Amino acid sequence: MKEVSSKEDKKHIDFEKFYLNYFSKLKYFAKEYVVSDEDAENIVQDVFLELWERRMMLFSYSNLIAFLFTAVRNKCLNFLRHKTIIRETASKMQEEYAITLRMNLNSLEAFDETLFTEKDIDKIVSRALDSLSDRCRQIFIMSKIEGKKQKEIAAELNISINTVETQMGIAYKKLRRELKDYMLLFFFLFSL
């Protein structure tokens, strides 16, 4: 039993010596790629932790130094790939947000306040509603103008709720197309 303990002590001492001799070299190597001291230190710590967990195999590597540098290199690669993906995703999200803001800005700048007189709104809405079939228009008016629930409309017209939902979908699609030049009006009047 004493012999096993002395072997374990020797491995512990050898590991500690190895750690002290190579930690700073490996950290310097990692820092060349990941730039941050903290990130480089974390990467090297992870490599040594994995090595410690496999310390029974510590002397089985024919070239332990090459193994360590390769392990640090691989961890740096994974770290950089992960950071690149995060940055690209954030950049894409910022780009999409900027496009949305630009579209909103253009839309508001092009907004014609005189468009929304009561008479003009009535004409625009009537023309758009006239583009719907009779049944579709009736269901849409009952829902959006009269404020009835789909269940009430279905019961009153003796049709299924599914038919009401389908007709509302058709109405929204056609109205969106008819009111494409008046999208703000569409969303203001008919938002869900």
SSE layout and pairings?
Elements: H1 2-34, H2 37-53, H3 64-110, H4 118-130, H5 134-145, H6 150-157, H7 161-178, H8 183-190
Helix pairs in contact: 1-2, 1-3, 2-3, 5-7, 6-7
What's a concise summary of this model?
With 192 residues, the protein is mainly α. Helices cover 81% and strands 0% of the residues.
* Arithmetic mean pLDDT: 81
Proportion of residues in helical segments: over 70%
Biggest beta sheet attributes: none
Distance between the termini: 77 Å
Report on the structure:
The chain is mainly alpha-helical. The protein contains 8 helices and no strands. The chain has helices spanning 2-34, 37-53, 64-110, 118-130, 134-145, 150-157, 161-178, 183-190. The longest helix is centred in the middle third of the chain and has 47 residues, at 64-110. The model has no long low-confidence stretch (mean pLDDT 81).
